[in-house]
Amino acid sequence: MYQGLEDAMQLHFLLNMTKFFIHKTVAIHNNSVFVDDEKVFDTDAEEPIGSFLKQVYKNYNVGYSKYFKMDRLSKLGFLSAEILLNNTNQNNIETEHTSIILVNSAASLDTDHKFQDTVNDIASPAVFVYTLANIVIGEICIKHDIKGETAFFVQEIFNSAFVSNYANIVLSNSAAKNCIIGWIEVAPNGTYNSAMVMIKKEESELELNEINLNKIFN
Amino acid sequence: MEELKEKLKAQLIEQLNLEDVEPSDIESSEPLFGDGLGLDSIDALEIIVLLEKEYSIKIEDPKKGKEIFASIDTLAEFITKNQN
Questions:
Q1: What is the CATH number of the domain that holds B77?
Q2: Of the residues A204, A211, B50, B79, which has the fewest C-beta atoms closer than 10 A?
Q3: ipTM value for the complex
Q4: Contact assignment for B19 to A68 by CB distance below 8 Å
Q5: Do the chains contact at B53 and A124, CB–CB below 8 Å?
Q6: In which domain, by residue range, is B24 found?
Q7: Has residue A189 got a pLDDT over 60?
Q8: Measured between CB atoms, which of B18, B20, B42 is closest to A125?
């Protein structure tokens, strides 16, 4: 009991001592890519998610053959991170000391449906490996050599208070110097939506807190 | 046999989502795994599924997988020997 109280006070102390800030934001929805709220790429609104994401991939010259093996959720998360971490050196981000916290409401339901369809015949191992939502984090970590703490939460809507607190704890109590926060969602009917931000210690106009995350994610 | 090899190349490209690869890019003798085409363990499982679905062939001895999957040449030879 005493130890718990001490831990809570220590955490309270740390949370109030250290402030973190929201930097670059990336959003992908309605066949458009936005960086810091500015539209940087779009395609015909009728384009289905698969071919839209392929055009984003080509537009950013990603050149990563394993991209084509990913499911739609991983492709969306991977490309969001790719754009967020674009020109990483210029943004002074040490990817090795970066954490990732992702959230969505449907987990891997899109791929779960696809896998269910293959079970009646011969189940596809390549589809099966994506029947976990947090695989998208693994794909991002492999590409960018990210070794910080990672977590994927399934929440009905983006819980800004929870994610803000969690990111504060991760940045205050681990080796992580930066943290990526994101909402990555693909529904079985092909509708999709992603938003991703970079959190750093360096000051910006937007402090990491519930209110500011709400503005971006809800 | 040459016809089978060309068919296998096309099937691998489709089954394994090798988006940027053309059949003509794959040398029949080059390694499929490691330095060659760069396939991984999940791809190996997909090839096993491909053999079962398209050629009705099951690999009874997993230890022989490495030998069978070495290249398009060895894969085609295995199919030819084992197809009814």
A1: 1.10.1200.10
A2: A211
A3: 0.77
A4: yes
A5: no
A6: 2-82
A7: yes
A8: B42
